Amino acid sequence: MAEVGYIRVSSIDQNTDRQLGGIPLDKTFVDKASGKETNRPAFKTCLEYLRGGDRLHVHSMDRLARNLADLQNTVEGLTGQGIKVKFHKEGLEFTGEDSPMSKLLMQMMEAVAEFERSLIRERQAEGIKKALAKGVKFGRRPKLDATQERKVVALVESGQEKTAVAKKFGISRDTVYRIMRDRKAGKILGPFEVQSELVEV
């Protein structure tokens, strides 16, 4: 019998140490994807690896499935093959010989988790709406055109701090450093070089 762990972390929270820490496992599979993501390669490999008599350890129900129907189908499919499923946060283990009470608990807990996720999504939507009303802009910062990049070069070469220049143009310091690297490589002309080219023409 193998003790197998499955861990799923979101693309934002990459810390796997919070799940199944200190539990002796023979094999661990890790996916880095959101709960809505259907493409979970590690989970697919995990299902192919499991055999009858094994026990699958999962931190919590919402780490294993996307919704209640998915959770029930997954657990029933595994226990039907003789594979035990243990959820550590909820303190529940399913063996295929579960009582109606344990099945009811699973449904209730997943329903509560889904309700909490709905509340979080609602609060996020309200927060975004309020931020937009205040003029907060979302998304990537706009790129600078050639003229603006030359102005960045001129300011930096005149001695201004890169942080101040970045703030002035609403860009990151990394962008300023990238522009200066392009300048050093000859990809961006300085203001006097532009004037020289115009005179020559």
From TrEMBL:
<dbReference type="GO" id="GO:0000150">
    <property type="term" value="F:DNA strand exchange activity"/>
</dbReference>
<dbReference type="InterPro" id="IPR006118">
    <property type="entry name" value="Recombinase_CS"/>
</dbReference>
<keyword id="KW-0229">DNA integration</keyword>
<feature type="active site" description="O-(5'-phospho-DNA)-serine intermediate">
    <location>
        <position position="10"/>
    </location>
</feature>
<dbReference type="GO" id="GO:0015074">
    <property type="term" value="P:DNA integration"/>
</dbReference>
<keyword id="KW-0238">DNA-binding</keyword>
<feature type="domain" description="Resolvase/invertase-type recombinase catalytic">
    <location>
        <begin position="2"/>
        <end position="135"/>
    </location>
</feature>
<dbReference type="GO" id="GO:0003677">
    <property type="term" value="F:DNA binding"/>
</dbReference>
<protein>
    <submittedName>
        <fullName>Recombinase family protein</fullName>
    </submittedName>
</protein>
<comment type="similarity">
    <text>Belongs to the site-specific recombinase resolvase family.</text>
</comment>
<dbReference type="InterPro" id="IPR009057">
    <property type="entry name" value="Homeodomain-like_sf"/>
</dbReference>
<dbReference type="InterPro" id="IPR006119">
    <property type="entry name" value="Resolv_N"/>
</dbReference>
<dbReference type="InterPro" id="IPR036162">
    <property type="entry name" value="Resolvase-like_N_sf"/>
</dbReference>
<dbReference type="InterPro" id="IPR050639">
    <property type="entry name" value="SSR_resolvase"/>
</dbReference>
<keyword id="KW-0233">DNA recombination</keyword>
<dbReference type="Pfam" id="PF00239">
    <property type="entry name" value="Resolvase"/>
</dbReference>
<dbReference type="InterPro" id="IPR006120">
    <property type="entry name" value="Resolvase_HTH_dom"/>
</dbReference>
<dbReference type="Pfam" id="PF02796">
    <property type="entry name" value="HTH_7"/>
</dbReference>
